[in-house]
Amino acid sequence: xxxxxxxxxxxxxxxxxLVLGIDPGTTSFKVAALEAxxxxxxxxxxxxxxxxxxxxxPLSHFPGFERIDxxxxxxxxxxxxxxxxxxxxxxxxxxxxxxxxxxxxxxAYWKLGLRTSSSPAARHLRxxxxxxxxxxxxxxxKFIVDFFRVVRQFVLDNENSPLLEHLGGGQPLxxxxxxxxxxxxxxxxPRQEHRSFTSAATQGLGDNCKLRIFTVSETECxxxxxxxxxxxxxxxxVLTSLSLIMxxx
Length: 249
What we know:
Blueprint: E1 13-24, E2 28-40, E3 46-49, E4 57-58, E5 73-74, E6 77-79, E7 85-88, H1 90-94, E8 106-107, H2 110-113, H3 120-136, H4 141-157, H5 162-166, E9 178-185, H6 191-205, E10 211-217, H7 218-228, H8 230-247
Parallel strand pairs: 1-9, 9-10
Antiparallel strand pairs: 1-2, 2-3, 2-4, 2-5, 6-7, 6-8
């Protein structure tokens, strides 16, 4: 019998990807990285495969960090009179102690301020944000664009990037077919607010053929971490054992 010819859909393709998880909190960002593989069977089926020994790496040592908060990035922004972003993150927070600091050009809590909720607190934040944006000649959504832009530039382009250092320096991103940016958003936000936030974040991350941007619910992130993380499964075993011991008393 002649050997069967192998068609394209019989071949499994495996490509290296880099996944960046971003948790845009109210007062600070947190960014973590994971190396994984995208596997395709040629039949339209595709999934992400993670090496069980590959660890999630929280990124740290962002510009201006202090030891106690090196793995988070404050969401603070400082602009000049021309509406240009001049300081962000830890540098913006630290500059508040400087005699030259002008609170009129300081932006914080912009995530909550973007909500269109009917609550008095949300409306107050929104008005303050709109007032600051008008003073700077821009819109509240531009604060999201600017923050994601500077975070992306530092993480993916800066020679002092903790991610590039972790990957060995040089041009390590070239080995990845895609860089997936996964943004966690509050599940209680209306769909329209999710779309507005994602649109601004996508604009800030820039036009790059390697970047693929996704959003997920914070609740889904918690459940996925609990189910897939081996350390969490060990906790389940411990809790189960304790429950059995207590039930026998």
